[in-house]
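Incident log, structure service

09:12 report received: a user says their structure output differs between two submissions of the same chain.
09:20 pulled the input from the user's history:
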Amino acid sequence: MATRLSTGDHEGLPWQAQVENAREVVADLCPGELELFDYAAAEYHVDPRRVLGRTRLRAPVGAGVDIASLTPYVLLVMQFLCAAAAARVVDRATDALLDKISHATRVKLAALLRRPSPGLGSGEDDVRSTPMRWDAADEKEIEALLASLSIAIDLSPDEAHRLSKALLVWLRLRAGKDTQA
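09:34 re-ran on a clean worker, output below:
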């Protein structure tokens, strides 16, 4: 059997998980492809469009074999499944966090994030000349939301507080408000 693909630290757990899950599917679906699985996965990882764009997988130099391979397609579907699952987890976490702030504050925050950044688009003065209408209560809710999110991603309470304060200054700038509050 071929040496297993070394995913290394630079590729991260998501790719490694996708490769190992795809290997299990290939073992069940087309076990004859396992011998070249690591090569196919490595080639797919470098350029999936190129691998999927051809009908046959070229074996490593010297093997002299072209084979029809389902492995790249299994990797593509596995990549889709992992992305969809991750997106759903992020959506649920976002919903849970956003449920902590009022509907009115959520609407104001969404509108603020859709605004053009100062210095981009039609100009910095345009954004700041029409300040958003939000008050200290909105800021308090948003700051608590940002701190909760920061702690949820394993920042210490002190780091979470510093980050939420910095993000609040950034939001004030986007809103056309004074950065001191």
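09:41 both user submissions now match this output. Likely a transient worker issue. Closing.
09:42 reviewer note: The chain has two domains: 8-82, 100-175. Helices lie at 8-29, 37-46, 48-52, 71-98, 103-114, 124-129, 136-152, 157-175.
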